[in-house]
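Journal club prep — side note

Before the paper discussion, L.F. wants everyone to see what a predicted structure for a comparable chain looks like in token form. Sequence:
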Amino acid sequence: MQVARKGLIMVEDFSEWKLQGEEIEQCLIQGQTIGQIEDSLIVRDCIFDNVTFVDCDFTKSDFTNVLFRKCDFSNCVVADSSFYKVRFERCKLVGTNMSEGFFKETEFYQVLGSYSNFSDSKWNKSQLEGSIFRNAYFNHSEFKNMEFKSCELRSASFLQNRLEGMDFTTCHIEELEVGIAEIKGMKVTTAQAIGFLNLLKLNIL
């Protein structure tokens, strides 16, 4: 995913500028705090750099070829939204609701996403790398060509998912919330596999 800074329009006040139209294209939004916006956005070919979103609800939004760098979406709602060729880099998504989302060719790199909600979402050719998603929810989601690399997934919930063939060997998955059906075919290390013995209800002597 590449968004060139050259040629982008610098937006000094996003809140006022947003009132001018629904679509946001080829813009650079930098060093701002954006608060209490409830609106569906259409965002294309933009960079958000060091932006803090406060009490925002962007349900049913559409993001294409967008870079979010060092942005804070904590406790915001971006549910039922589409992300295509989007990169979240060193962002905070603590408690963020991104459920029912569609993620294609989307990357989460060094993201803090504890307690975030991605339930009922669909993923295609996307990647989570070097990120913390403790106690996050990925329930009832669909994964296709999905990668988890070096992620902290302690106590994350993956109920009602098909995880067969997915590689978690570089991740921390202690106390992962899954059932027997979900762990079938998962790629894990020997040490990680021991953590799932409680699901089998074995009496090991």
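L.F.'s comment for the group: Helices lie at 14-18, 180-183, 190-194, 197-200. Keep this in mind when we get to the figures.
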